[in-house]
Structures are given as C-alpha cells and as structure tokens.
Write a structure and sequence with these properties.
This protein is an alpha+beta fold. It has twelve helices and twelve strands. The chain folds into two domains: 52-93 and 317-450, no CATH class; 102-313, no CATH class.
Length: 451
C-alpha cells in the first residue's frame, strides 16, 4: 500500500471506528426495539399475551432480510472468486523470459565523467566483463530499465516503410529497449525468426532492429517482417530507417497485465544510456548487490550500486496489489457469507421455536421426520431462491466494474459464479442443520403433558 509507513492506529482512528460501530448498533436496534415495545403494548391493550413477532407479516419481513443477506453475500463472493482467478492467472502467466536466478542491479553512474555516452558504455562493458568472470554469475547484460516499471519507461512511436501519415499515426506506442548482443540469451528469450544482434551492429553500420512478435504481426500481417524497414516517429520523421533482422517472443517485461509492443535496437546504435545491469546466476541466493559493488569498485570506487533485487522479488511486488485486492474482497465475502448463514439460522430457529406446538401436534398425528424437515425448510426455500436470483443479477450488473483489476478472466466467468452459488448453498445447508435437528427431536408426549 502506498505510504503505508505513514498510517498509524491512534486515538482518532479508534474514536472513528468506535463511533461507526455504535451508530451501526443503534440503527440496527431501532426497528426491533420499536417492534417489541409496540407488540407488547398492543397485546396488553387487547388483553392477550400473543406476540406479533410470530405473525405472517413478521415472518415475511425476516425472510426478506435473509434474501437480501444472501444476495449481497453472493455478489461479494463472486467478486472475490474473480479476483482469486485473476491472481492465479497472474502467478502462472508466461513472462516470455525465464525469471529464475535472474537479478537486476542499478548502476546510475552519476559522476560528471559519465556525461560522455562513450565513457558510460565503456564502464558498462568492463562491468559486464568483470561480472561474468565472478563466481556464480553465468551472464550479465546492461539495460535501460529494470523489469516491471509499468507506465514508466522508454517509449517510442514508429512508422513502417510505405505507410501514409494517417496510418503511421494509428500505430501503437512501443516499449523501446537498447540492448547488447547477449541480452536475449541472458534473459532466456527465444528468437522466433531471423537473428539476434551481434558485435558488428554498431554506429556506422546498417541500423537494425528486432521486434516483438505482436508488433511484427501488426506491422506486416501478411508478410515476413525480416528485411522490412521502419523508423521512429511519424511518416515524415527524419529518423533513419532501421531494417528488421529478427523477431522475438513478446515479453511481459514492463507490465505483466498489458505489455506494450516492443522494439529492440543495438545499444551501440542508440543514444540511450543504460542504468541497470541484469545478471543470470548459476546458483540460488547469490549476494547480487555485493558482487556488483565489488566489480564496480575495481572500475570506479566512487560510483555506487544503489539497489539490487531478484526478478522474483520484483514480480512479487507486482503481485502485491492483486493479492491485497483479493484479500480485502475475500474478507468482505467471508463476513457476508457468515452473516447470511446467521440469518438463515435465525429465521429457521425462530420458526421452530414459534411452531413447537404445531410441530408436536403434526408428529402426534403421524407426521414423519421427512415431513417435518419439509415444513421447516419451506420457510427458507423462497428466500434462498430469491437471494440467489437477485444476487446473480446484481453480480452480472456490477462485475464489469472489476474489469481493470481482472487479467485473463471474464467479468462473467462461469466458474466464479458457480463458486458463489456453491458457497451460498453450502452455508445455507450448514445453518439449517441445528434447527432441523431441534425440530425432528420434538417429543409430542412431553409437549402434551406440559399443556
């Protein structure tokens, strides 16, 4: 959560929560209190001890409240199930690269000597060489950005050769990454077509580019992109034409849920300076920060390595928000289902208590346990059906609002709705067990003796 360190539990928070709880109790207690006093007063004026709480009108009121509880519980349960499915999809999403044993370290090179791009590249070249010679490091490559930066990144627009100005303007924005020849092998990225960059792809040579497969399909849907040309900017941009030499798998490098189309250019043909280095370890739990600091110390002891993290840690950070959403909504769903179960239990329990004499007489006249159960359940059957129908309708109307939080899950996911129905039906059955057992154990002989 953003700025979690500034959030504290204090007297003001306690006062607000206590006041809200007290207000809720008062609001919830007004109607029953008024009803009880009114019923007792009317029964005394009529000279009878009868209680209006057992009247058909009172029973219907309780049943309607239970139906409302069930409907709300179903709504929240379905929403919670959708977020559970989303988290499962995020956890199993194919990133397009292998995150195992992969780490990233930030090397900002803030000294004035590194305003010169060539000097900066020299340092990164030497740093990568030293890192790859370090024990436990299998490969290393400089990058512009660490993974999972989301909207913060190097972006570009492009125009394909032969596109009109309006067609180029409709092209999607691109994630731009300037990389070295070993970038794709370090990350474990497959080359689908063509080749990776090599050492000859540098300034003065033919400008080249590698595309993500979704960009290649969009730019040249009916032809091979190899050998085709594109450039940054619009159709009239003065930027040089770049020849496509390869196509790679789409990576979820910047954004897990909605990765932008990607284009890769050789670092030696790019003016963009790297600020991070990605390391592929050959063993688990290597001290990446210390290893990078030690390697940089031999090059320039005054320059810091400001941070380092494994890709798995960064991925877990990306999943923190979906996990929180799932937890919060799951907690609401649990409370709502629990309250719905209490409501079912209360309605059936009250009905059994009010109809003890009737049930006893039915048993005395020959009613069996099945008939008694059917009588009791008839008082909760239509509220359950009504609650499920209203809850399902409300879920269909509201789950589309969860779309920004969902990933590869439809807002009308059948399994999530089925899970909601199952949970509500199970809690209804469980809440009905005690009142049903109490009803079938009524002894008509004991009851008649007490009469």
């Amino acid at each position: 959560m953003t700025r979690l360190d500034t959030i504290h539990f204090n007297d003001r928070t306690l006062t607000w929560v206590g006041g809200a709880a007290l207000l809720s109790v008062l609001i919830a207690g007004i109607a029953p209190a008024f009803w009880t006093v009114r019923s007792a007063l009317f029964s005394r004026l009529r000279g009878t001890g009868a209680d209006d709480s057992s009247s058909p009108r009172a029973q219907v009121g309780r049943q309607v409240l239970v139906a409302a509880q069930l409907a709300f519980a179903l709504l929240v349960t379905v929403a919670g199930a959708l977020l559970v499915r989303t988290l499962q999809q995020l956890q199993t999403a194919d990133l397009g690269f292998s995150p195992a044993k992969l780490s990233v370290a930030q090397v900002p090179l803030v000294g004035s000597a590194y305003y010169d791009p060539e000097r900066r590249l020299q340092v990164f070249d030497e740093l990568v060489t030293r890192l790859q010679a370090a024990p436990g490091i299998a490969a290393a490559t400089p990058v512009l950005l660490r993974p999972f930066t989301g909207m913060d990144g190097w972006d570009a627009t492009f125009a394909g050769e032969g596109q009109r100005a309006d067609e180029a303007a409709a092209n999607p924005g691109l994630h731009l990454e300037a990389v070295t020849p070993n970038y794709f092998s370090t990350l474990g990225v497959s080359i689908i077509r063509g080749r990776a960059f090599n050492e000859s792809d540098r300034k003065g040579a033919l400008p080249v580019a590698i595309l993500g497969e979704s960009l290649a399909r969009r730019a040249w849907p009916d032809a091979s992109p190899l050998g085709k040309r594109l450039k940054f900017g619009g159709a009239d941009s003065p930027a040089p034409w770049m020849t496509v030499v390869g196509v790679v798998r789409d990576l979820r490098y910047r954004d897990i849920k909605a990765p932008p189309p990607a284009i890769y250019v050789p670092l030696r043909q790019s003016p963009f300076p790297p600020r991070f280095v990605i390391l592929r370890a050959s063993a688990e739990h290597l001290p990446t920060l210390a290893i990078t600091q030690q390697a940089l110390k031999h090059i320039d002891a005054t320059e810091p390595v400001t941070e380092a993290a494994t890709i798995d840690d960064l991925l877990n950070t990306q999943l923190a928000a979906p996990e929180f959403h799932m937890f919060a909504l799951g907690l609401f769903a649990f409370v709502a289902v629990l309250l719905a179960g209490v409501g079912v239990f209360g309605v059936l329990g009250a009905f059994v208590a009010e109809r003890t004499r009737e049930v006893g007489l039915r048993v005395a006249l020959g009613a069996n346990r099945t008939q008694v159960r059917r009588l009791i359940l008839s008082k909760i059957g239509w509220p359950v059906v009504l609650g499920l129908i209203v809850g399902t309708s409300a879920a269909f109307a509201t789950t589309p609002f969860l779309h920004p939080l969902l990933f590869r899950v439809s807002a009308f996911d059948v399994s999530s709705f089925a899970a909601g129905w199952i949970v509500l039906l199970v809690i209804t059955v469980v809440a009905s067990l005690i009142p049903l057992r109490r009803a079938v154990r009524i002894d008509p002989v004991v009851l008649l003796r007490s009469e």
